[in-house]
């Protein structure tokens, strides 16, 4: 788990000047109206799904870039559909006190690809880190937070780009989505963190691609799921029976 630095707000210039032209949807950290709760059926510990409407999505209120649509297969009223963007930024947050104590969690971006999708073969940065309670998304900035983190998460399924990555000898570095969710969505592991239970913090989850000249489009985002990490070799799912473990990604977690 990355621990992000706490900035000196008194000496830090107003970061909003650097984002004057960047349109964002920025939710309140206190509202839970767009978050679903469940208990892990193996451990009984808390799980959450944060709806796309509660995430900070760059250009999320610009209908030329993102639109909001109702999907019958989504847990929430709306999902976010990306048409085309060059600065790709999705960030979420959750208070650590909401999670089960003494538990290691993993966070996942839950999404689908549309028929008009492009640019998902280029890797994105994913990371999870502890922030001070009530933190400002813009202090420090996204570039500072993600500095030094190598983009390795490929949003496109492994089978679609395996040949191209293998030819470039990057197949061992890439992380691919789990395609085995029983609800039909894809999920990309964003990172893991251990919740002791006594922290007065929030966890920030980031998926972004900002240092590139390539665009991206054709992405449907349902939200970010946070659930306990499970260490086992075999998963038994009611619909799928015994499933062997797979090395890359986190394909062990099968949720209904």
Parts with pLDDT < 50 across at least 5 consecutive residues: 3-33, 233-256
Number of helices: 2
Please tell me the overall pLDDT. Answer: 79
Alpha-beta content class: mainly beta
Total number of beta strands: 15
Order of helices and strands: EEEEEEEEEEHHEEEEE
Terminal-residue CA separation: 27 Å
Using only CA atoms, what is the Rg? Answer: 18 Å
Shape: globular
Notes on the structure:
With about 260 residues, this protein is mainly beta. It has 2 helices and 15 strands. The chain has helices at about 140-145, 160-165; strands at about 1-5, 25, 35-40, 45-50, 55-60, 65-70, 80, 90-95, 105-120, 125-130, 185-195, 200-210, 215-230, 235, 240-245. The strands form 3 sheets. Strands 3, 4, 6, 7, 9, 11 and 13 form a 7-stranded antiparallel β-sheet that branches. Strands 1-10-12-8-5-2 form a 6-stranded mixed β-sheet, with no helix packed on it. The longest helix is centred in the middle third of the chain and has 10 residues, at about 160-165. Mean pLDDT is about 80; it is low at about 5-35 and about 235-255.
Short description:
The chain is mostly beta strands. The protein is built from two helices and 15 strands.
Question: Which structural traits does this protein have?
Answer:
six-stranded mixed β-sheet, disordered N terminus, mainly beta, seven-stranded antiparallel β-sheet, about 260 residues, 2 helices, about 40% strand, single chain, 15 strands
Detail the topology: elements first, then pairings:
Elements: E1 2-3, E2 24-25, E3 35-39, E4 46-51, E5 56-58, E6 66-69, E7 79-82, E8 88-95, E9 103-118, E10 125-132, H1 142-146, H2 158-167, E11 186-195, E12 201-209, E13 217-228, E14 234-237, E15 241-244
Parallel strand pairs: 1-10
Antiparallel strand pairs: 2-5, 3-4, 4-13, 5-8, 6-7, 7-13, 8-12, 9-11, 9-13, 10-12, 14-15
